Amino acid sequence: MSAKILNGKLLAQNLENALKKEVASLKKETGCVPHLVNVMVGDHHGACAYAKSQKKAAEHISIQYELEALQEDVTQEHFRQCIKRLNDDESVNGIMIHKPVPQHIEYHAVAKYVDTDKDLEGINVTNIGKMLLGETRIIPCTPASVMEHIKSTGIDLYGKEAVIVGHSVIVGKPLSLLLLEQFATVTVCHIATSEAGQLEAHVRRADIVVVAVGKPSVIKGDWIKKGAVVIDVGINQVNDKIVGDVEFEAACKNAAFITPVPGGVGPVTVTMLMRNGVEAFKAQMRKKGKL
Q: Are 226 and 254 in contact (CB under 8 A)?
């Protein structure tokens, strides 16, 4: 078996084209388009590259996108006041806080400042709670990207064994909820699973494997079950090469579908941010009676 490579760039393009049509329709109905603001602290190469990807996607979809740059030495209080100003600005429909933030900034505390209705990344505690209850369309972007990749395979998740490797707040935990909503049988593995010597056994029985650890080749290719779907969220630099968390070439021999790194989950994650912006915009327009 040779795995089909899931082309994240093509999937993102198709999703963005659909969003572009939706935004054009919304503009006709409301007279405006979503206005999104990305708040970034300092000057980090990786963060700047991600912001450029966001801007490019927003321009393609015809969304108004703005980058709010704060100094590296910004205080927690000044950061809070910046978020408050954006919360109070009715022309702003979506806010995200770009990571990383300096060590002196408490990221989760700042995230709580973001208005629930404008939370572009679905990280506000209220939105996390709503996701647990299945009551929100604002979904954390990377898990949403993973779900779009799985959806693109055409595989029905009902009753499938899904194994998530990595239990982070921004990927593993919310993804487990999204998979449960589709009636997959979900196992979440983490450092203790590995230390107990059980990681390989869990991966070997999985129909769906999602890896988000940040450790190259942590998942061996020969662990992958024949016909499995492999979604690699990891991004690691090894010498001059960017690789994922899965042994790609070896995994391709067993998997039915697999995401490449780069070019897999990443491009669609940006699109999911835009989709969240459109959903936030629609919810706010409904409250104003414009939709």
A: yes
